[in-house]
Amino acid sequence: MKTKKDIKVPQDEAASTGSEETNQKLLRGVQGGGFLEKSPPGRRRQEKKLSRRDFLKTAGGAAGMVLLAQCGSKEAREEFLQRNFRSLSKEEIEQVIKRLEAEYLKKYGKKFTVSAKGPIDGTLFAYALDISRCIGCRRCVYGCVEENNLSRDPQTHWIQVLEMEDEKGIDFVHSNLYYEHDEVPHEGHFYLPVACQQCKNPPCVKSCPVGATWMEPDGIVVVDYNWCIGCRCCMAACPYGARHFNWGKPNVPIEKMNTNTHFLGNRPRYKGVVEKCTFCIQRVREGLYPKCVEVCPTGSRKFGNLLDPDSEISYILKNKRVLILKEDLNTQPKFFYFFGN
Questions:
Q1: β-pair type (213-215, 221-223)
Q2: Backbone phi, then psi, for 334, in 5-degree steps?
Q3: Residues 108-132: pLDDT tens digits?
Q4: 3-state helix, strand, coil in the chain (%, to 5)
Q5: CA distance 65 to 324
Q6: What are the chain's domains?
Q7: Is the separation of the CB atoms in 267 and 250 below 8 Å?
């Protein structure tokens, strides 16, 4: 049997293959397209693999740097880098409030007050609405628009009043949101206003991928507009259609701007973020009623502290037959409906 030493390579074939060093270079070039030249002879170097997670981190970081570079002013960079409101210290909140008030003064030519007042101890806010008294005048709708700096064009309404037929009872399928009558209430109909139900078990909060919305200790579900990424997952999760997306820049006439605001409530919003009813957080944390309660001409709206046994809201829950919307979903709303008469 012939061994490797006994096998002779023809002289012309040996010449065509070249030297051992040349062969190794050619081999490395074929294996790695020139990237393996520093590999040990005869061995392929393990290439570093870039995972999808690392790629997304790198791409996200690069995109963030591009966006940061586009933030011209110092204030714009601070806003871009601002952390979630819940993670800010007291000093950081004061700095943010100061920056916003200066920004609004420059932009609108009016002095704004931006509050960051927290929940009142021993308070759990709740709402009750007497369906038998509501006449469908929509004063609550437009009182809310004025108080909370809602966009006029395109229009945004946190409160939507549904007209329903007496014979059919509470029937959302055949309700009419766009009713127009010379006088209300229209004969044979009753009215059911719907807004954020301030759920104790809010699906919108669970669905937010960035933690931009949460329930405060006093029961109010809020949104951090600076942290919202506009994915609208919360809108899809809300069974009451109570969240609204700003497809365009909110348009509020400067002369009609309400300058008494709260960071988590009625301060000017941005394009591309979600907003909702906050029980007029800028008012109720100062001991006032929500604007819709204040402007209702029939007294059909009730508001108070569930933890106070002597409050009007507690009396209603104890003595009236109340109902909540879509009870089967276990969202546990703090917005109750009842028939006073």
A1: antiparallel
A2: -110, 25
A3: 999 999 999 999 999 999 999 999 9
A4: 35, 15, 55
A5: 48
A6: 125-338 (3.30.70.20)
A7: no
* CA–CA separation, 170 and 48 (whole Å): 64
198 phi-psi bin (left φ>0, alpha ψ -120 to 50, beta other): left
pLDDT in tens, 308-332: 999 999 999 999 999 999 999 999 9
Angle made by CA atoms 275, 282, 314, in degrees to the nearest 5:
95
Structure tokens at 322: 């109340």
Task: Give CA–CA dist 273/292, Å, rounded.
Answer: 24
Nearest by Cα to 274 from 254, 253, 244: 244
pLDDT at 8 over 70: no
Residue 142 CA to its chain's centroid (Å): 23
Task: Take residue 86 and report the two structure tokens written for it.
Answer: 């819940």
The single residue listed with the structure tokens 């960035």 is 210
Q: Which has the closest alpha carbon to 138: 110, 158, 120, 122?
A: 158
Q: Which residue has the tokens 């006073």?
A: 340
Tokens 């390579």 sit on residue: 9
Phi and psi of 202, rounded to 5°? Answer: -75, 120
Model pTM score: 0.78
Inter-residue contact 219 to 126 (CB < 8 Å)? yes
